[in-house]
Amino acid sequence: MSYFKTAVLLAGLTALFMGVGYLIGGAGGAVVALVIAAATNMFAYWNSDRMVLSMHGAQEVDERSAPELFRMVAELAGRAQLPMPKVYLMDNPQPNAFATGRDPHHAAVAVTTGLLQMLNREELAGVIAHELAHIKNHDTLIMTITATIAGAISMIAQFGMFFGGNRDNGPGIVGSLAMMILAPLSATIVQMAISRTREYSADNMGARICGHPMSLASALLKIDNAAHQIPNMDAERSPATAHMFIINPLSGQGMDNLFSTHPSTENRVRELQRLAGELGPRGNFATAPANASGRQRGPWG
Fold first, then answer.
1. CA distances from 276 to 7, 17, 119, 209 (A)
2. Closest to 75 in 3D by CA, of 42, 39, 25, 109
3. How far apart are CA 199 and CA 261, in angstroms?
4. What are the C-alpha distances in Å from 83 to residues 74, 76, 191, 204, 292?
5. Which residues pair with 97 in a beta bridge?
6. Is 131 one of the annotated active-site residues of the chain?
7. Could you tell me the pTM of the whole model?
8. pLDDT digits 0-9 by tens, 185-219
9. Which residues have CB under 8 Å from 62's CB, separation 6+?
10. I need a surface site. Which of 37, 240, 274, 276 has the fewest CB within 10 A?
């Protein structure tokens, strides 16, 4: 995704934020919303990664606390010619993962305990390579800022309900109800525009980093199937962060999932199958020895 398109989409979110402010407080409300949006963008640039990690209870791990995971991330980061990102673990039974950070030098990869338990080593490598591709493509900044602004839009839209009964200063009851529904929905549509192109690109680059497109395809199918069966309560409480995950972590039972922020898993797998045909037989992540004996070992089979 080009920087120009990213700037346009962020401007659209900011304009939506201002529009909600105008409905609540007129021209003065729009100005206040603009100031809040500017402050939110600035705050998100420096702090949104820590906020998102905190929302999902992510704990940083290192080579001593999670040696296999840490070494896998280090090797794949080397292949991607990236600085070593921080590694986080989320105590969550749903298999999933995301990357965050304002640039490759301030990046983090977070995976759930469910992901480590469900995937084999090659599939896990595919998922981590996908997240590293987001970092290499500089997607992580826009992902985290979008999540922060979208969450702020939902909050200010709900705040507008307090002004619903005052026709002079607010949009009225009907307008307030419409705003509560349409403003977050509009923010989700912008997230969709950002997410879909981003995911296809990260799948392609991630498959090239790990060297085995079909391992990533297999991981996507496993995660997608599990995400519909195993709830992610942290994501349900913070739905504005859903677009950051490799697969939509939401259950799909509420308005937040009226439109998915992710492209179809079947379409993503089809693209990876096509890429596998183009690349042909290649060495994959499993061929690199993990220890002196040259044998792969670890908790992923």
1. 33, 42, 20, 13
2. 109
3. 10
4. 9, 10, 27, 20, 25
5. 111
6. yes
7. 0.76
8. 666 666 666 667 789 999 999 999 999 999 999 99
9. 70, 87
10. 274
First-to-last alpha carbon distance for the chain, in angstroms, is 36
- For residue 245, what are the contacts with CB-CB under 8 A and spacing of at least 6? 96, 97, 98, 235
User: Which strands, in side-by-side order, build the sheet including 58-61?
Assistant: 58-61, 86-90, 107-112, 97-101
Which one of 122, 123, 131, 199 is the catalytic residue? 131
Per the CB < 8 A criterion, the answer to whether 237 and 231 are in contact is no
For tokens 């290499």, the residue is 136
Alpha helices in the chain (DSSP H): 3-55, 67-79, 113-118, 121-136, 139-159, 172-210, 213-227, 233-237, 265-279
Q: What distance in Å separates the CA atoms of residue 76 and residue 217, rounded to the nearest whole number?
A: 17
User: Is-contact 10 144, C-beta < 8 A?
Assistant: no
